[in-house]
Design brief:
The complex is a heterodimer of chains A (about 325) and B (about 300). With about 325 residues, chain A is mainly alpha-helical. Chain A has one domain (about 5-235). Chain A has helices spanning about 5-15, 15-35, 45-60, 65-85, 90-110, 115-120, 130-135, 155-180, 180-190, 190-195, 200-230, 240-250, 260-280, 290-310; strands at about 125, 140-145, 150, 230. In chain A, the strands form two sheets. In chain A, strands 1-4 form a two-stranded antiparallel sheet. In chain A, helix 12 (about 240-250) crosses helix 13. Chain A starts with a helix and ends in a 17-residue tail after the last helix. Chain B has about 300 residues and is an alpha/beta fold. Chain B has three domains: about 10-120 and about 180-280, Rossmann fold, CATH 3.40.50.300; about 125-175, no CATH class; about 285-310. In chain B, about 40% of the residues lie in helices and about 20% in strands. Chain B is built from twelve helices and ten strands. A six-stranded mixed beta sheet of chain B has the order 6-7-8-3-9-10, sandwiched between helices. In chain B, strand 9 (about 250-255) and strand 10 form a beta hairpin. Classes of the chains: A mainly alpha (about 325), B alpha/beta (about 300). The interface of A and B includes residues 179 and 208 of A.
Chain lengths: ~325, ~300
């Protein structure tokens, strides 16, 4: 068993682009679900919008990269508005139904044959990240702490931008949640009628939460597209949303650091278990499964872990049990 | 002040009602709220059908009636939590029909709820701060810059602490509202409503579920609102309380206002006695109704029996 390899892969996953993407997706969900109590089950759709906005703007239309970023942020906000207007006046479950459907619509539109000239169909789009990597200040070479951590200069650039985005989003959220604005959101999570009776425009606050959460999700989409230099529609299926919820619940909802630590730990454990089992099978330590089965078993273990987490620590790592909306008092 | 002197607010309120005819829809000298022809139907049931009602400014008015009289529905309509099928009402001369609940509250018409809505996962002081109106920090972008709202927040906190002291909740300042007793939650909800400096305070069964020790204190607070120049409209079942604190009583039954008058007079009114005792709301009013109720009861029995047999 090559423990250096196992630990190295796990640590790299814990601070890598995957962790950033899911941290951003979960920070968005934290605004919506953690603080406001809105069930957005379509976060994958917001990431898809961010990723495809860059890809289509640059690869299909040959327009500047930063225009794509702007379009991505704008479209994420527009999508949140479109979803919110009909559903936010209704019960929470309607938002869940509509968002999950909307995310699937986004995915099916970008993978459709009819629009493959624009979105590239099931193959997706490539060759749009050139101007992003042209801005890379890191000279070519290996960076990190050998033998555990090693990234090339391209990854370093993505990671730098990604973690800065995570830090900025978290800082803004931290300030917002300390403010009277955050107090209104937390109050809405508990009882909207009480908040209404105190003269607050509940609909507007829920809409703001939906938009802010969706826009932060689209930042995750940017990193998703740039870290791979490619986008494919099926990467934005509902699994992504549910992993993001897992990350949020693992770290602790309604906590600023919850989604960040949740995401790092989620990927660290997932890769540690996966690589560990592969290594164990290869070295003959485990004989009753094959390497091909490791992927499935890894996910079963994640599921089991989540079940145990919800039973024994529903508030996650950082959460305050008195404050989460998961418990029914 | 002499211990037995009648407070100024009460004297003024009683004077306003002096010599007023005790009949439904009677005109008041200075109404803060005027309601005309408000109707609310749920399917075939007319829950509320109020022709004309005025609420006198600066008074404590009780809204009473048997269960199912439509008091809470009426309350919900006036405060924008439910829509009226017909009719209109004005608050301080402004039309309020179709105005959403949060705007009603901003206008100065604040309500509490029958089932207390203290926000149990916020602390007592945060609950109070939430009640203040026009907070600069409640805008997302301004909220990000504390220097823009800190000053106002400090003012709000001072106001909140004063109210908490008045309501004897100051010891609970930093506790989660969920840890309060039922009566304390009622107090908190009332105190929180006052943070918005309302003109008309509407209390939906303020005494429900409050232990007798706290009742007196709650009554005192309600009377005090009148001294502070506020108007109070409250729904209540407890007749002793109604007699004790209200200047004027409005009686509803089957969605309509059937009587109005000073507390002592109205309780001996034959229509009121009938509404409470004679014409109980469960009793069938016609032969068809009786038939229908019988069928319902039978169907229910059958269903239970079937379930038991299955099990």
């Amino acid at each position: 068993m090559d423990w250096t390899l196992i630990i190295s892969r796990a640590v790299e996953a814990g601070i890598g682009s995957e962790a950033i993407i899911y941290a951003l997706a979960a920070i968005g969900l934290n605004v919506q679900f953690g603080y406001t109590g809105l069930l957005n089950f379509g976060q994958a759709g917001f990431l898809a919008i961010g990723a495809y906005a860059i890809a289509v703007t640059v690869a299909t239309f040959g327009l500047p990269f930063f225009l794509g970023v702007g379009i991505g942020l704008l479209l994420a906000a527009v999508m949140a508005l479109l979803l919110g207007i009909p559903t936010l006046r209704l019960r929470a479950d309607y938002l869940a139904i509509v968002t999950i459907a909307a995310a699937e619509i986004v995915r099916l539109v970008v993978r459709s044959v009819a629009l493959s000239d624009t979105f590239g169909g099931t193959d997706g789009l490539q060759a749009f990240s050139g101007s992003f990597y042209d801005m890379n200040p890191y000279p070519p070479g290996e960076y990190g702490i050998p033998p555990i951590i090693g990234f090339d200069n391209r990854s370093m650039w993505v990671l730098t931008v990604g973690w800065v985005l995570v830090a900025v989003a978290s800082f803004i959220l931290f300030m917002a949640m300390k403010s009277p604005w955050g107090r209104v959101l937390k109050a809405i999570r508990e009882d909207e009628d009480a908040v209404r009776s105190l003269g607050k425009n509940v609909f507007s606050y829920k809409m703001q939460a939906l938009v802010i959460g969706g826009v932060i999700g689209s930042l995750g989409g940017f990193i998703f597209a740039l870290s791979r230099s490619a986008v494919q529609p099926d990467l934005f299926s509902t699994d992504l949303t549910f992993y993001a919820y897992t990350v949020l619940i693992l770290g602790g909802a309604a906590r600023i650091l919850g989604p960040i630590v949740g995401s790092m730990l989620f990927w660290l454990l997932l890769i540690f278990i996966g690589t560990g089992m592969e290594e164990a099978v290869n070295s003959g330590a485990i004989t009753f499964i094959t390497v091909n089965q490791v992927g499935a078993i890894r996910l079963m273990l994640v599921g089991l872990g989540l079940v145990l987490l919800l039973i024994y620590r529903p508030q996650g790592i950082f959460g305050d049990k008195r404050e989460i909306s998961l418990d029914a008092r | 002040m002499h211990a037995e002197s009648v407070p100024a607010g009460k004297t003024a309120a009683l004077k306003a009602f002096e010599g007023m005819a005790a009949e439904p829809g009677v005109k008041k000298p200075d109404p803060i709220l005027v309601v005309d022809n408000v109707v609310r139907r749920f399917g075939g049931l007319t829950a509320v059908n109020v022709n004309h009602v005025e609420i006198q400014r600066g008074s404590i008015t009780a809204l009473i009636g048997p269960n199912g009289a439509g008091k809470t529905t009426f309350f919900n309509q006036l405060t924008g939590f439910d829509t009226a099928d017909e009719g209109q009402w004005t608050f301080n001369g402004q039309n309020m029909n179709g105005v959403s609940a949060y705007k009603v509250a901003r206008q100065g018409m604040v309500r509490t709820f029958q089932l207390t809505k203290a926000l149990s996962k916020l602390t007592v002081i945060e609950n109070m701060r939430l009640g203040a109106q026009a907070q600069r920090g409640e805008n997302f972008f301004r909220g990000l810059i504390p220097s823009l709202w800190r000053g106002q927040e400090d003012e709000i906190t001072l106001q909140a602490e004063e109210l908490l002291e008045q309501f004897k909740l100051d010891a609970k300042r930093d506790d989660f509202a969920g840890s309060l007793s039922g009566g304390q939650r009622k107090l908190l909800e009332m105190a929180r409503a006052l943070m918005g400096k309302p003109e008309l305070v509407m209390l939906d069964e303020p005494m429900a579920g409050v232990n007798p020790a706290l009742t007196q204190s709650l009554l005192g607070h309600v009377k005090n609102l009148r001294e502070l120049g506020m108007t109070v409209l409250f729904v209540e079942h407890d007749m002793d309380m109604v007699r004790d604190i209200s200047d004027w009583v409005i009686v509803m039954a089957q969605g309509e206002v059937i009587a109005e008058g000073p507390p002592d007079g109205v309780m001996s009114d034959q229509r009121v006695v009938d509404a409470y005792l004679g014409a109980h709301h469960d009793a069938p009013l016609s032969a068809e109704e009786e038939e229908r109720q019988l069928h319902e009861a039978e169907a229910e029995l059958d269903a239970t029996l079937e379930k038991e047999v299955k099990e």
